[in-house]
Amino acid sequence: MSQANPNEALILGAVRTPFGRRGGALRETRPDELLATAIEGVLARTGLPGERVDDVLAGCVSQAGEQGANIARQALLIAGLPAEVPGVSMNRMCGSSQFATHAAAQAVAAGDADFAIGCGVESMSRVPMFLDLTLGKGDFRGFDDLHPRLVKRFDIPHQVESAERIADHWQISREEMDEYAIESHRRAEAARAAGLHTEIVPVSGVDKEGAAIRLGHDEGIRAVIDVERMRAMQPVFRQPGEGGVTAANASQMSDGAAAVLVGRREAAEDAGIQALARFRSRVVVGSDPVMQLTGVIPAAHRALRKAGLSIRDMDWIEVNEAFASVALCFVREFAPDMERFNPWGGAIAHGHPLGGTGAGLMAKVLAGLAHRDGQFGLQVMCIGHGMATATVVERIR
């Protein structure tokens, strides 16, 4: 890719809020406020005036209640951007804000925008997953309310059952999933204790008693794991001895937001902003809706192929830990250097605020590459009903 291309889409900044536990420190913080904080944070980091932003594209999965009515537009106005700046909200389930970042880059590369923000948010404390207020009773829609024709064609199970089938197919044991989860927490706690998460912008929250606090780290990380308690936990869906997916080896429901500023090379240079990275590839794929979460494998293959690189070229590999079995099936297929695979732990430890995770992981990848003085990073996320997103970035040093 030519570095002289004036229209090349570059990543200029990326930040995220801490990810709070569901019902935890961010339980009283509205999601539109969380997203506004991320937007403010990325503009403050880069020094770009808000009036220079041409569009804000936000991922959000449960677009109801405080997350309804186009949260992108509401958040950018809360953040103080001019009324002339537009915003759009999009839902590609867990890949929503990674896709929003892709869409921002595509708008910039096409010449439709000089600067665009790809971002995302989810408050799983305040807007529970699949909440649909239009039903009048706060009922839930999702895996239990599929169209009969869809059920006849695929009989899509709950994601937890798909995670179990992945473990069966790749012969991943309960013990292996638990050990992986323990290591995720260990790595996440080591990174937190060392202050490595330079991508995090602290936010206001409350403690258990409701007193105001300042949260500057991911709340779900456990410094000490009760291994005996973990071993005793029952599978979420299957009977004991017949399944291995538990709450302890799956991602945590969380509250959080993130934002990535993308800019056209020439416009960024004129604004005096030093770019962090360039996109080497952006990919979204469909995959088997029954296995549902295995799209990370074809997505990574396609992203690496489009980038002209291999898994061995990656200095940082970030696979969203929706379930331990998803990360481990990726490991089975690619045999990556495990020191480069989720080096700071993943969603099992730090949480997974659905629509906010994709942009959050992008910010984490860029912070990790800078810390290690690495060049190439791969980010991959599985998506419900059988999809996946993948991005290969090249750090500009």
UniProtKB/TrEMBL annotation:
Keyword Protein biosynthesis listed: no
Thiolase N-terminal domain location: 10-264
Enzyme class, UniProt record, top EC level: transferase
Family annotation (Pfam families): Thiolase_C, Thiolase_N
Domain Thiolase C-terminal: 274-395
Active site: C94, H352, C382
The protein's name in its UniProt record: Acetyl-CoA C-acyltransferase
Gene3D superfamilies named among the record's database cross-references: 3.40.47.10
Keywords on record: Acyltransferase, Transferase
Family: Belongs to the thiolase-like superfamily. Thiolase family.
Organism listed in the record: Azoarcus taiwanensis
Organismal lineage: Bacteria, Pseudomonadati, Pseudomonadota, Betaproteobacteria, Rhodocyclales
One annotated GO molecular function: acetyl-CoA C-acyltransferase activity
Superkingdom: Bacteria
UniProt-listed Enzyme Commission number(s): 2.3.1.16
Keyword Transferase applies: yes
